Amino acid sequence: MPRQTVELRIRRQDSPTAASRWEEFSLAWQPNMNVISCLMEIRKNPVTKQGHRTTPVHWDCSCLEEVCGACTMLVNGRPRQSCTALVDNLPEGTITLEPLTKFPVVRDLQVDRKPMFDALKKVKAWIPIDGTYDLGPGPKQSAVEAEINYAFSRCMTCGCCMEACPQYNGRSEFIGPAPIAQVRLFNAHPTGQLNARERLDAIMGRGGLVDCGNAQNCVEVCPKEIPLTEAFGELGRQTTVLWLKQLFQK
Amino acid sequence: MAAPRIAVVGGGLAGLMATIRIAEAGGAVDLFSIVPVKRSHSVCAQGGINGAVNVKGENDSPEIHFVDTCRGGDFLAHQPPVKGMCYAAPGIIYLFDRMGVTFNRTAEGLLDFRRFGGTLYNRTAFAGATTGQQLLYSLDEQVRRHEAAGHVTKYEGWEFVGLVRDDSGRCVGLVALDLRTMKTKAFRADAVLMATGGPGLLFGKSTNSLINSGSAAAAAYMDGVRYANGEFIQIHPTAIPGADKLRLMSESARGEGGRVWVPRSQGDSRPPRQIPEGDRWYFLEEKYPHYGNLVPRDVASKEIHDVCVNKGLGVDGKMCVYLDLTHIPRATLKRKLEGILEIYEKFTGVDPCDEPMKIFPAVHYSMGGLWVDYERTADGFIDLGSPKNHQSNVPGLFAIGEAEYQYHGANRLGANSLLSCVYAGEIGGPAAVKYAQNQAKAGTETPSSVFESAEAKWTARFAELARREGPENPYRLHEELGRVMLDNVTIVRDNDRLRETDARILELMDRWQHASVLDNGQWANAPLSFMNQLWNMLHLARVVTLGALARDESRGAHYKPAFPKRDDAKWLKSTIADFTPDGPKFHYDPIDVSLCAPVERRYD
Q1: ipTM of the prediction
Q2: Under CATH, domain A114-249 is a member of which superfamily?
Q3: pTM value > 0.90
Q4: From the candidates B103, B346, B348, B528, which should be mutated to test the interface with A, based on the most A CB atoms within 10 A?
């Protein structure tokens, strides 16, 4: 039985320092609705269920096809992209929308995920090419390897894994699952391997790989099904080898 | 002189490539983007990037790529830039390979290539069906590296609102709006590159990201930059509808063997798999035996329109046809098309490996854009040392990527957009550096008063918009704009309806004056920024509509049944619009077709 109306409960917050509050909205059901189109309906008529005029809900989004990562939020308590949250696939009853909790709120459902981008700098998540001038083809790679690496290169820096990770929080220095998996990606590339050690160094100290509590929540919520925990296992071996090497060099 | 300071607006493929090139040349870059650059619209490109690497023993070459592109564009593009791009393409693909893009590979470990529309060659390198995302990420990573080294300063969450021009008319900076504090600020620059993407939002819903309003390019146009070939809007034949946007189903689905069909008899309501071969009409294969399902997009969209609207054979009576992959092994589909199969299944709940996809045409790409120049060599290539490349009519203002008009003529070939974005960035960045170095007095040394007055103008403008109250809702006005543009300025165009459309846009402009800003807050106020964007979009919509009205011929994506033929005698010309307060003023420039003579386009 499809819904007649779509009931929403949205956590609103005017600014990073303001207190949050709940607002409720009731919309007429339409075919093909997703959470984004609900938010679009609200801004065309920003009135709460109780009939009070309010401001349009503020949220982040861009591609709307789950490749940019922008529209991540908590939908019924679960971190996910709101574009693929189709109304007809959500359980009956009120849909609850909240901002991610592991990042500072900018306004309403928009958060600041800058720490994730900073972490990519910290782990040197890039191939250190000599320059962009034409230097001919890159190194040969097996089709199988390329396919495995592709899975890791689809990470959208959306923040679902960070949100779900019990170790990633305000009290811990843990860098989080997403940037660690990028170390796995770049260390597997024939050119990236040349700097593998620098990247391992970045995740060997405090806040690095050892802070992973192996709760495995990250793989559960990753929208691209990136084998995050496999990456941690592999990097565990790489860092152990490096640690032993350093031990014997001393 | 000191290292030039260049502003790049937009962090998609073109903007990031230009940023890297400027940083490599020793320049400092201020990079502006409304979203974190990693979330730019380039991520939506799916199928691949073209380059005649010739790994399949087909004797493909950059010259054939060049001819395919000119012909695909119905000869409306200046040919030297197209030639430069096609010859640079193999090197560009190699560069991405070196940067670690996880391209699909052959058994030997080489890059794999597949077919795309408008060519008979396997020329498209790909990373599953998320190639744009993968290419963008590799540039994002390189830019982060330059950022860590101090060559690049990012302004993410800032929106370009206008140019700063000095007394001589030269562009010496820009004004941007901080989307959190809602304050405007002027920035100095020795040159500015616009890499702000396409205007899909003019049509309400399209395959474009929601950030693709075209507002920045429109603002540049309103500040004096010419806008060229605006009427050429690509309708992609294969997308799926949603309440919020239309989602692309890549041409690569057909490149990998996907077949387009409709039931032969009107109103056949059997589920697609129960319709036997004999009752299916593979209309593209039948009408175009040579290119089959891989005719260029303008041709495919026009045929779908004909089959669905004129012949009434659309699936469920709608503008809808089947795109069938079910004859291809699931493992092959997963390896080569996973990204789009996933999108289709997530949004429709149907597995396209089991069931033919229901697809619809959708607005996808603007061939037109800001007018830019180039310098050609005697042998028809681009003089890469010239500051003219990608420079607009406003000195110091450059445009690259979908925001400009240079490479695709009247219709873009699939997998040429990633290429043109990267190539434009590769040559546009250095051209801006060269321009800056040639200036006797740097743009950044312009007196403060010029920047102060530009900033004051925009601060006053937003203060005024922030007070707007009235009966109209800007998002509803936008929806109306989208509907009228979609109905009248897409696959089939008619002069009376184009005239009515312009009248409607004028009416919407009037109603915009009575729109409420909806939010009086001074922090992260999206409706305030949207009010400004909408005004710019309305102006740009007039450029598109009136350009289409004037062009009485059919060429590429511009199709008028009343003028069904291409008319080279009258219309082998670029449409060029100058902004005036009363609307666009058009003139027409000849096209350099000296390298590949225009012939009739045939794909049958």
Answers
A1: 0.97
A2: Alpha-helical ferredoxin (1.10.1060.10)
A3: yes
A4: B346
